[in-house]
Amino acid sequence: MDLNRLTVRARGALEGAHQQAVARNHQQIEPVHILFGLLGDPEGIVYPVLHALGVQPKTTHRSSLTDQSRPIRSSTTRTMMMMPMIPMPP
């Protein structure tokens, strides 16, 4: 992947995801790390999308930070359970 082709915000989100993975001593970037990186930019697209879904971004961000010792799967599950289902168009 050529990171130079990404927007500044996308690169920032990936950098935040990488930093979170390193902080948790994980060998790869998982979805919860990317969520953390995206939630690190309150001016980005994720905040309005979550608000439209009735989800509080700051609560979701804190949830992605809690209990650093738990396996990544539990954090992902906990975060995803907070988000309502999005109906698919017909």
Number of domains: 1
Q: Tell me about the biggest sheet?
A: none
Helix content: 55-70%
Question: What is the CA-based Rg, rounded?
Answer: 14 Å
**Could you list the spans in which at least 5 consecutive residues all have pLDDT below 50?**
67-90
Q: Please report the distance between the alpha carbons of the first and last residues.
A: 33 Å
**What is the count of helical runs?**
5
Shape: flat
How do the SSEs run, as a string of H and E?
A: HHHHH
Please state the structural category: mainly alpha
Number of strands: 0
Mean of the pLDDT scores?
Answer: 75
Task: Tell me which oligomeric state these chains represent.
Answer: single chain
Q: Strand percentage, roughly?
A: under 5%
Using brief descriptors, characterize the structure shown.
58% helix; mainly alpha; disordered C terminus; 90 residues; flat
Structure explained in plain terms:
- Helix content is 58%, strand content 0%.
- The chain has one domain (3-78).
- It has helices at 8-23, 31-39, 46-52, 57-65, 72-82.
- It starts with 7 loop residues before the first helix and ends in an 8-residue tail after the last helix.
- With 90 residues, the chain is an all-alpha fold.
